[in-house]
Structure formats: structure tokens, C-alpha cells
Specification:
By secondary structure, the chain is mainly beta. The chain contains 9 helices and 25 strands.
């Protein structure tokens, strides 16, 4: 408990003292000492100053299977364990429909399941994390199995019917039977339900579905739909970007929610992208970067402020790396580094050992240069290690100690400034087909930047 003498310290001096506490955990303890301390620490102005001084700690990873908190001896392990019940629970976000409605063909969502088909309890539709940034999580409403677009022929008139399906639906459906989904000419972007939430404060906003007139404008069949959460600004506290891939174009559907208005807008781009699913992306200073093995010569870049695509060519040292890359997984990540430069880590495997090659491209330069080669832990076999994205000045990679089919996979972080490698946690997954793991950073609710 705070002494009476401390309680009489002027508030402006208290602010300066609290700002000099070394960790968010120390601030939380100070807030619990007395009412006046808590009032100072909870003030909007103080929390914004804390946010500028203290990087939010890494609490763990989110994926379709739940939340995987940082484990001891990781420095965030105590805080992650305390906040895990909140971080893994999205039940406070209202469901799009009740599970019982999936038994009725009258439900708008009956197009997701054949009439009379009800999956096991663990496979019931629910909110799934798709992206995380600034302590918030972008959710979409699907079952645990990945959803994709499947074409079916209507035996009555011979027309094609495009529907959203889960993997277990495809296995259980009788191809000889007439499709029982809600019929429409083709599936479009209006079929997806999204929400943005802060799991620690239990706040959320349901994102309205994309207007039908927007979603129906592309004349081609929708082949992929990727929702993303853009960095927040004071003018745009919530910004969701949905990249829809069609046969010959990309379409961006952008939702912006401000204190006065909320609306969708659309932009189409005639950009040619190689076949196959869109890879995971990294967000650096308001830009999204995509890297992929098939894209040997460039990065795809999206400016989230102007909604314009561009390319960054991989020249210089990256020409030497092209013949050293391994596997077919995502092997490069763009990270936060020095101002005025793009920095990237590329994974290289040679004779059972793995290294990360740190490269940079300075503004005005046309040649990528090598900064450093970092050896990775040596207990992993060939092809059993891959990068897992980057965020908040960290690179993440995963490794399976006993080979490809081992379900216990280790996750590591590498701090970009110091090259320090720290094990974050272990979690169960099939390494050959890993679920998309999202690094989750957040301050405790008491210290987080106000979002209202």
C-alpha cells in the first residue's frame, strides 16, 4: 500500500515517476497500490504516453485452434498466463447466427451447410482470428475447417452454382445428389462476416457485410478472399481491408469506421499474380508486404493509406539466394528496421543447418545488401523449419524437433535490433499444413491506449 506521503505527491510529478518504471508489470502493481495512483495511470493522456514508451509485450500466438500463450522462461510468460482466459475467448462477440439455424434452409447462412447436416460440436461455426494488430483482433465467422469456394453443376438447368464450403462438407457430400445450398449465380464477397474486437477489454464492432452491389460488380468467379486489419490512426480507428482474388484481377474492399461514419469502398487492380493461394503478409509502417517462393524476383506491396499496389524488385544479394532457398513454404519476412530502408530476413538451409540472411534496401538504392547471417538452433532436420512472419520489430520462425510429421512445433522470436533468439512456446500442429499463427501483442487493459 502507498504511504500517506506518496499519496500527496502532485499528479504531474507522479506521471514523471510512473513513466520511469521499467516495465508495464511494474505500472500495473503501482496502479493497485492506491486510488490516486490508479486514477493517474488510467488517464487517457498517461496511457498514450505509456504506449509511446513501452512496446506492447508479446503474449503468444492465435490461430484457428485457440490462443497459445508465451511459456516460461519467456519474459512475458506470467502476464500471458494471466491474460490467456481473455485472449482465447471470443464468446462476447455475438454470433452471426445460432447453430440451430444451420438445420433450416430458410436461414441466410444455410448456404454454408447442406440441409440436415450438423457437424460435431467442435466443428460448429464460430469466430476465427484472421489478423491481429494494435491489440485488436480481426475475426471471421467460419468453422474450424478452412472455407473455400467450390463450383457445382445444377442438374436441372446445367448452370454452375458457386458455394462456400468447408473441407468436411466436401467429404460428406454425395456428388450424385442435387446441391442443397442456397442457389445463387456465384459466391461473392458479400457472403463473409467480419468483426473487430479487443479481447482483453471485451470490446467489439461487428463489420457490416460488403454491399451486394459492390460484391457483384466483378464479373468473374471469386477464388480467394483474404481479410486484413490495417494499422489504426486517430482519423480511422478501425480499417479493414479485404483482398478478393478473381481470375484476372484483384479487388480491394475497404471498410473504414470513424466516430461519424462507417462505409465500404472498392478498388480493382489488373495485377497478374501467379496461381496458388495468396501468402501471409507482413505489416511495416503502414505497408503490407507479400513474399512467396514463386515470386522470385519481387515483393508485392500495398500502401494501406493510398490503397495502391507496387512491386519491390529483389536484386543484389537476393540473386545469390535464389538457388539456396528450400521447400515450398513461406521463407522470407519483411521486418521493422531502420527508417528509410526495407529490411528482410530470408531462410536458407544447407546440409541440415539453417541460417537467416538479413538484407536491406536503402531508399534511393537499387541493390539489396547483406547485413548479417544468423545461425538458427541446430536440433531441426531438413525441411522442418520455416519463418512465420514478422511484427513489432520481431521475426518469428517455427521448427519441428522430430521432423515434418511431429505435432509439437516450437515457435521462436528473433529481435531485429539485437538478433536475440528466444523460444516463445510450443504448440500442436501438423508442420506440413500449419494453421496460420498470428503473433498477439497487447498491454494489459489498464495500460492499453484508449480505443473509444
Amino acid at each position: 500500500m502507498a504511504s500517506p506521503a506518496l499519496a500527496t505527491i502532485p499528479e504531474d510529478l507522479l506521471v514523471e515517476i510512473f513513466l520511469r518504471l521499467p516495465t508495464p508489470a511494474a505500472l500495473s502493481r503501482a496502479a493497485a497500490a492506491c486510488t490516486s495512483f490508479r486514477r493517474t495511470i488510467k488517464s487517457r493522456a498517461f496511457r498514450r504516453r505509456v504506449r509511446s514508451l513501452h512496446q506492447p509485450p508479446l503474449l503468444g500466438f492465435m490461430d484457428a485452434g485457440g490462443f497459445h500463450p508465451a511459456e516460461a522462461p519467456h519474459p512475458s510468460a506470467p502476464l500471458a498466463a494471466a491474460l490467456a482466459p481473455c485472449a482465447e475467448d471470443f464468446s462476447f462477440v455475438p454470433p452471426v447466427v445460432s447453430s440451430a439455424s444451420y438445420l433450416s434452409s430458410a436461414s441466410p447462412s444455410a448456404s454454408y451447410f447442406p440441409v440436415g447436416f450438423l457437424p460435431d460440436d467442435e466443428e460448429l461455426p464460430r469466430w476465427r482470428p484472421r489478423d491481429a494488430r494494435d491489440g485488436r483482433v480481426l475475426l471471421d465467422w467460419v468453422s474450424l475447417n478452412p472455407r473455400f469456394v467450390q463450383m457445382w453443376g445444377d442438374p436441372e438447368d446445367g448452370s454452375d452454382v458457386s458455394v462456400l464450403m468447408d473441407a468436411n462438407e466436401l467429404a460428406d457430400h454425395d456428388p450424385g445428389a442435387r446441391a442443397t445450398w442456397t442457389k445463387r449465380e456465384r459466391c461473392n464477397a458479400a457472403d463473409f462476416h467480419l468483426a473487430v474486437c479487443d479481447p482483453l477489454s471485451r470490446r467489439y464492432e461487428l463489420v457490416p457485410t460488403i454491399p451486394e452491389d459492390f460484391a457483384a460488380r466483378p464479373e468473374e468467379r471469386l477464388t480467394e478472399f483474404v481479410p486484413m486489419l490495417a494499422p489504426t490512426t486517430e482519423d480511422e480507428p478501425i480499417k479493414v481491408i479485404c483482398m478478393a482474388r478473381y481470375e484476372t484481377k484483384l479487388v480491394l474492399f475497404v471498410f473504414i469506421s470513424t466516430p461519424t461514419t462507417s462505409q465500404w469502398r472498392m478498388a480493382a487492380f489488373p495485377i497478374t499474380i501467379p496461381p496458388g493461394g495468396l501468402p501471409c503478409f507482413d505489416c511495416v509502417r503502414g505497408y503490407f508486404y507479400w513474399t512467396k517462393m514463386e515470386w522470385r524476383d519481387y515483393l508485392l506491396v500495398l500502401d494501406t493509406r493510398t490503397m495502391r499496389f507496387s512491386y519491390v524488385h529483389l536484386t543484389g544479394y537476393h540473386v545469390q539466394l535464389r538457388e539456396q532457398s528450400i521447400g515450398h513454404r513461406r521463407l522470407s519476412a519483411v521486418v521493422v528496421g531502420r527508417e528509410g530502408a526495407i529490411e528482410m530476413f530470408s531462410l536458407v538451409g544447407q546440409k541440415g543447418s539453417f541460417t537467416l540472411h538479413h538484407t536491406s534496401l536503402q531508399n534511393g538504392s537499387e541493390e539489396w545488401k547483406l547485413e548479417k547471417i544468423i545461425p538458427l538452433p541446430g536440433q531441426y532436420e531438413d525441411y522442418s523449419i520455416s519463418t512465420a512472419g514478422a511484427a513489432e520489430g520481431f521475426l518469428f520462425f517455427r521448427g519441428a524437433p522430430e521432423g515434418l510429421n511431429n505435432k509439437n512445433v516450437d515457435y521462436y522470436s528473433l529481435e531485429v535490433k539485437t538478433y536475440e533468439i528466444t523460444k516463445v512456446c510450443s504448440k500442436r500442429e501438423l508442420f506440413c499444413n500449419p494453421k496460420h499463427a498470428l503473433p498477439y501483442f497487447s498491454l494489459p487493459t489498464l495500460l492499453s491506449e484508449p480505443s473509444d
